[in-house]
Amino acid sequence: MNNRLNARPSKLLAALALAAAPLLIPAEAFAVDAAAAQALARQSNCFKCHAVDKKKEGPAWKDVAAKLKGNKDAQAMLTKHLTTGPKVKFEDGHTEDHPILKAKSPEDTKNLVDWILSL
Ligand code: HEC
To answer: Which residues contact 34 (CB under 8 A, 6 or more apart)?
Structure first.
């Protein structure tokens, strides 16, 4: 009797640990891979006109993240911006098609968008 009572807490803990384990997996799958996002931005030549925290020909990505903070359409807007090549206006007034991201998959695009929005 005594033995069984003693055994219970550890069994309960083991059961809890097993139950919690699957919960950790999706959280990791959604985490932003900053290194991969930066590598993709480099391959796509984005840094020619952008930097994380300083304005170049295009806005600093930190400013983009700040501008879109709390906007529930931010993810969709940036995904569209980076996959459709919209006409954008430069400081000197000329317009040209914004470059399209050279992503291999929608997941890569999402990772980069999430990374920019997390800045
Ligand atoms: C030739 C210069 C140039 C290159 C290269 C470039 N951009 Fe831009 N980008 C701009 C300009 C200019 C704007 C501002 C557009 C505006 O405000 O209308 C902009 C805007 C943006 C925005 C903000 C969009 C918004 O809705 O506020 C993001 C995010 C962005 N670029 C990401 C990227 C990524 C990722 C790449 C690489 C695929 C890239 N840019 C390559 C010039 C560039």
So the answer is: 115
Q: Tell me how far the alpha carbon of residue 50 lies from the centroid of ligand 1, in angstroms.
A: 7
Q: Which residues of 26-55 are buried (b: 16+ CB within 10 A; e: fewer)?
A: eeeeeebeeeebeebbeebebeeebeeeee
Per residue in 96-107, pLDDT tens? 999 999 999 999
Residue 4 — pLDDT band, cuts 50, 70, 90? Answer: low
Tokens found for residue 42: 């480099």
Pocket test of ligand 1: the residue of 46, 68, 75, 98 to mutate, having most ligand atoms within 8 Å of its CB, is 98
**Both tokens of residue 6?**
């003693």
